Amino acid sequence: MSTAKKQVILGAYLGGVNHHTAWWHPNAGSQIEFDSFEHTARTAERGRFDFFFLAEGLALRERAGQIFDQDIIGRPDTFTVLASLAAVTEHLGLAGTINATFNEPYELAREFASLDQLSGGRAAWNVVTSFDEFTGRNFRRGGFLPHSQRYVRAEENVEAARLLWDSWDTDDIVADKDSGRFLRRPDAGSFEFDGSQFAIRGRFTVPRSPQGRPVLLQAGVSPQGRDFAAANADAIFSPYGTLPEAAEYYRDLKARAVAAGRSPDDLKILPSASFVLGDSEADAREKYLEIRDQQVTGQTALILLEQIWNRDLSAYDPDGPVPDIDPDPDAPPIIQGRAFIHQDRFETATKLRVVSEQKKLTLRETVADQFERGPIIGTAAQVAEKIDTFVQNNGSDGFIIGSHLVPWGLDEFVDQVVPLLQDRGVLRSEYTGTTLRDNLGLPVPADPVTVR
Length: 452
Known about the structure:
It is an enzyme of class 1 (oxidoreductase). The protein is of the alpha/beta class. It has helices spanning 34-46, 78-86, 105-118, 133-136, 150-165, 223-232, 245-259, 281-295, 298-309, 345-359, 363-370, 380-392, 409-416, 418-423, 436-440, and strands spanning 9-13, 51-54, 62-63, 66-67, 93-99, 123-128, 173-175, 182-184, 190-194, 199-203, 215-219, 235-238, 268-273, 275-277, 335-336, 376-378, 398-401.
């Protein structure tokens, strides 16, 4: 008996604050003008994507105390952009990255609930945390939250937000036949939360949305991060784009979800991926290498290594060897505002030296080889096959697709790859649901049983 193939979930992201965006390309558009966001969202909806994803940077990045020009900098407010996109799309989910460390649960829950109502049930919150003093100066007296407390605060923030979203039942607004008005039940919106990070009580102002509550997204690699995501998230961003490590991460997160009392199907695993298409595999590979070489300049390579070494490496030749000195983790951070994803500086530095020696690569070539996001490269048919094979082999439940070329790059994927995924029967030809939860195949949370 045949088994139905898994449906591929697709998210779209618009590149912004990093060197992967080809801002130097003659056809590149703006990262902050609304036309770019609108074009990407409309293109994603034309391709029957599930959602549009917006990352966020809360501080301008610095090198040795000075703003540096390696990245595109600046990003409009997330809620403003997503609310605007709700008006020019009908089905596409709208996912925003909002920091749980620096935002209070009442205002955060209210903003997402408002977006969910305005969009007809299409909002999603990508929950992120922060503990660095550099970013925290914009928000907190004293600047930072101890590393050990970041998930404590995030868990309480999510718990409090859910309490607020669930403070309304779907039948809390009733029609009054005599007056013709809609009335609120007396206790609708009442809430009280008392924790180590937040102690709040009052009445929530936004009724329950068509999808019950916004979808929660999360990323987690550490054991603590994985447990948090498995217990709370509806979807998690995977850092793995190759089998079998992606399949092991997939298995681990699904098992943690079951251990948290959830169905494994209620947690979707989604790595990000870029793509390069060509008339042949060789043509696509040639295009990719050309793009990569332009993205990773000598200066960019040194900046990326400085974040690991935490030293000034400007005296090193990008066309020379990888530095033979050790990192200095105890020195003040030379790079500020970039997420640090390397758990062990010394181990990472050693690995880069070994790769450089084994492959006979220069410093810049080593960075280009090791820091790439793992783009999907080939003809349109090959890319469609690779995506389908990856998902069917439980490397993920789908991908969040972006392009180096903003905002036009996604058009190529939608025009060439999407029809082939549809022909394979793994991507919808039309939207069948009305909310983001419908499209992702997630259950709608039941109305809470509230003691009032």
